[in-house]
C-alpha cells in the first residue's frame, strides 16, 4: 500500500475534482473574480478539507481566501497569480485553523473525537478512506506537502512557494510523510 496508495487516492480525487470549464481556453474578455470563484472554489474547498478534515471549516477557510483575493484583486498580474494567491491563502488559513485546534485541545478532554461527515465517508472506497485516515495522523506540514503534491498536483517549487519552505524541505518532508503513511496503513491497529 504505502506511497502508491497515497498517490493513487489523492490523484484520483484531483481527477474527479477537475472541471472542464476550469481549464477552458481563455476568451477575449478579462477574467473576473466571479469567474475564478466559479472555476476554483470547489477545488480549493477540497484542498482545505484534506488539510483541516472538516467541510464546514474548509468552506470558511476558502471564503476568507476569496475575500483576501478580492482585497488584493487590483495588484494581481494575471489569473495564475490569483490562483497561486488562493492556494497559499488556503494553506495559511488551514494552518491557522490547526493552530487554534491545537490550543483548544489543551482545554478539551482527549476522549472527544471529530467525526467525518457521512457524505465524505460514502464518497471513498475502504482503501481510499484508509489513506485519508492515515493522512489525518500526520503532522500538519507533512499533510500539507502530501496533499499539495498528490491532490494539488503541484511541483516541489510550487509547494515551496505555497508553504513558505525550501524545495529541499519539501522533498524531505514528502519522503518522511510517505513513510509515516505507509507505517500507519501497514499497522492499522496503531500498536
From TrEMBL:
Pfam families: Sigma70_r2, Sigma70_r4_2. Residues 129-179 form the RNA polymerase sigma factor 70 region 4 type domain. GO terms for biological process: DNA-templated transcription initiation. Signal peptide: none annotated. Gene3D superfamilies: 1.10.1740.10, Winged helix-like DNA-binding domain superfamily/Winged helix DNA-binding domain. GO terms for molecular function: DNA binding; sigma factor activity. Keywords: DNA-binding, Sigma factor, Transcription, Transcription regulation. InterPro entries: RNA_pol_sigma-70-like (IPR039425), RNA_pol_sigma-70_dom (IPR014284), RNA_pol_sigma-E_actinobac (IPR014325), RNA_pol_sigma70_r2 (IPR007627), RNA_pol_sigma70_r4_t2 (IPR013249), RNA_pol_sigma_r2 (IPR013325), RNA_pol_sigma_r3/r4-like (IPR013324), WH-like_DNA-bd_sf (IPR036388). Belongs to the sigma-70 factor family. ECF subfamily. NCBIfam families: SigE-fam_strep (TIGR02983), sigma70-ECF (TIGR02937). This is RNA polymerase sigma-70 factor, sigma-E family.
Amino acid at each position: 500500500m504505502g506511497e502508491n496508495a497515497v498517490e493513487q487516492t489523492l490523484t484520483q480525487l484531483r481527477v474527479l475534482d477537475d472541471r472542464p470549464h476550469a481549464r477552458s481556453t481563455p476568451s477575449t474578455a478579462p477574467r473576473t473574480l466571479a469567474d475564478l470563484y466559479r472555476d476554483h472554489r470547489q477545488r480549493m474547498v477540497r484542498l482545505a478539507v484534506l488539510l483541516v478534515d472538516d467541510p464546514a471549516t474548509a468552506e470558511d477557510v476558502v471564503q476568507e481566501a476569496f475575500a483576501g483575493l478580492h482585497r488584493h484583486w487590483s495588484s494581481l498580474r494575471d489569473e495564475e497569480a490569483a490562483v497561486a494567491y488562493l492556494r497559499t491563502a488556503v494553506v495559511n488559513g488551514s494552518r491557522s485553523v490547526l493552530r487554534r485546534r491545537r490550543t483548544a485541545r489543551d482545554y478539551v478532554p482527549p476522549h472527544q473525537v471529530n467525526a467525518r461527515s457521512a457524505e465524505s465517508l460514502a464518497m471513498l472506497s475502504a482503501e481510499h478512506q484508509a489513506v485519508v485516515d492515515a493522512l489525518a495522523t500526520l503532522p500538519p506540514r507533512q499533510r500539507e506537502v502530501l496533499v499539495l503534491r498528490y491532490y494539488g498536483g503541484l511541483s516541489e517549487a510550487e509547494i515551496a512557494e505555497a508553504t513558505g519552505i525550501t524545495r529541499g524541505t519539501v522533498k524531505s518532508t514528502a519522503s518522511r510523510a510517505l513513510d509515516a503513511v505507509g507505517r500507519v496503513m501497514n499497522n492499522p491497529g496503531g500498536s
